[in-house]
Automatic annotation (TrEMBL):
<dbReference type="InterPro" id="IPR029063">
    <property type="entry name" value="SAM-dependent_MTases_sf"/>
</dbReference>
<feature type="domain" description="Methyltransferase small">
    <location>
        <begin position="177"/>
        <end position="319"/>
    </location>
</feature>
<dbReference type="Pfam" id="PF05175">
    <property type="entry name" value="MTS"/>
</dbReference>
<dbReference type="InterPro" id="IPR050320">
    <property type="entry name" value="N5-glutamine_MTase"/>
</dbReference>
<dbReference type="InterPro" id="IPR007848">
    <property type="entry name" value="Small_mtfrase_dom"/>
</dbReference>
<dbReference type="GO" id="GO:0032259">
    <property type="term" value="P:methylation"/>
</dbReference>
<keyword id="KW-0489">Methyltransferase</keyword>
<dbReference type="GO" id="GO:0036009">
    <property type="term" value="F:protein-glutamine N-methyltransferase activity"/>
</dbReference>
<keyword id="KW-0949">S-adenosyl-L-methionine</keyword>
<keyword id="KW-0808">Transferase</keyword>
<dbReference type="GO" id="GO:0003676">
    <property type="term" value="F:nucleic acid binding"/>
</dbReference>
<dbReference type="InterPro" id="IPR002052">
    <property type="entry name" value="DNA_methylase_N6_adenine_CS"/>
</dbReference>
<protein>
    <submittedName>
        <fullName>Methylase of polypeptide subunit release factors</fullName>
    </submittedName>
</protein>
Length: 382
């Protein structure tokens, strides 16, 4: 039996209310809720938010957006962003990472305290509210009931809708990939280019793509001439996204999508996987593409790879070494897991990231990001 959705409770003009609470990050409904409008100033709103009191907005929607920006400026100032010296100097890259994640979490909790009401049919009952019905239907499906959501999450949903419409240019495809809400966008093109440039094993008639996401790597392999690509993912949003992208690119006949945990049945001469790179706990659904607690997916891929490779086949592991520079996963551990799985390293192709954070000296993890290398490890059976 499916659990009843969580409810958010508040009192307004002497009347008690309770409606469905929605949080993609899995945050519980706030226990304290105050009704707020255009008369509330940013300092009062920030104080209440820091104390754990959520603000259910009843004023002008655009004013709520401006208030959220003001709250963000106060949160950034509190956590040292923009100052010459941080509030606390980390003793190591690992501590810097944990302090950074802690600050991110605190900031997210504070900014999530500004709430927006929805009426059935994804209507926002506020002045100057935008029409977000299409974006909400894409992300959540049909909406027949009232609910409350944080403004920050709503703006993220609207932003994802715009990303989906515009798409992301993929030079390796000569086309665009359109990410859906909750599916990690392939904005780091260097790892895609590695898959496009690495020579295919001989007689690659079938390839497995483990963790398909948007379907970008399956599309690259199909465009390279692999007759059959079988892609798996456990996330239904990802499968829907990949299916739409594959269809748009006209690759339906070559790419098959399966809802599966890791490997499809059988063996293939090429098995590709781009697991999350950082062994830490994700704080939202989309962060599962970046954070992998205890390197679970990485370990599962290595442990099962040998049993799914054809004779003479290759497994391509696409992995950043950012975790190594942060002190979260030594290179020795990766090499041990490869050996324990009965695998050998056939070769490795490296590339340096070109995303903006790699050159942002103000980023608290700049030293690690500046040293980061993304690699395609070619693995074979020992």
């Amino acid at each position: 039996m499916q659990a009843a959705p969580p409810l958010i409770h508040w009192t307004e003009q002497g009347t008690d209310h309770a409606v469905r609470w929605h949080s993609e990050a899995g945050m519980p409904p706030p226990k304290r809720v105050a009704v707020a409008d255009d008369t509330m100033n940013a300092d009062t709103a920030y104080r209440l938010a820091c104390e754990g009191t959520a603000l259910l907005w009843r004023g002008d929607f655009q004013n709520a957006r401006q208030l959220l920006q003001a709250l963000a400026r106060r949160a950034d100032h509190k956590h040292g962003k923009g100052k010459k010296k941080p509030a606390k100097v980390a003793a190591s890259p690992t501590e810097a990472f944990h302090l950074h994640r802690q600050a991110q979490s605190q900031r997210a909790r504070t900014l999530a305290m500004l709430l927006i009401p929805f009426e059935p049919g994804y209507t926002i009952p506020l002045r100057r509210a935008p029409d977000v019905k299409l974006a909400c239907n894409e992300a959540y499906g049909r909406g027949d009931d009232a609910f409350v959501i944080s403004l920050r999450e709503l703006l993220g949903l609207v932003g994802a809708h715009e990303w989906r419409k515009a798409g992301v240019a993929i030079p390796a495809l000569g086309a665009r990939i359109h990410p859906h809400y909750g599916v990690f966008s392939p904005v780091r093109g260097e790892y895609v280019q590695l898959v496009a440039d690495t020579p295919l094993p001989k007689n690659t008639k079938v390839a497995f793509d483990i963790g398909a996401g948007t379907g970008v790597l399956s599309a690259v392999l199909a465009r390279r001439g692999v007759p059959q690509v079988i892609a798996t993912d456990m996330d239904r949003r990802a499968l829907s996204c990949a299916r739409e992208n594959i269809a748009r690119l006209g690759l339906d006949e070559q790419v098959q999508l399966l809802e599966a945990d890791m490997f499809p049945p059988g063996r293939a001469p090429l098995v590709v996987c781009n697991p999350p790179w950082v062994p830490a706990r994700p704080s939202s659904s989309i962060e599962h593409a970046v954070y992998d607690p205890e390197s679970r997916m990485l370990k599962a891929f290595l442990a099962g790879l040998k049993d799914h490779l054809s004779e003479g086949g290759e497994g391509w592991l696409i992995l950043s070494d950012l975790a190594e520079h942060l002190g979260l996963r030594p290179r020795e551990h990766l090499l041990e897991w490869i050996a324990q799985a009965g695998l050998v390293v056939l070769g490795r192709h490296d590339v340096r990231p070109v995303h903006p954070k790699a050159t942002d000296a103000d980023d608290p993890l700049h030293a690690a990001r500046a040293a980061e290398v993304t690699s395609l490890w070619r693995l074979g059976a020992a």
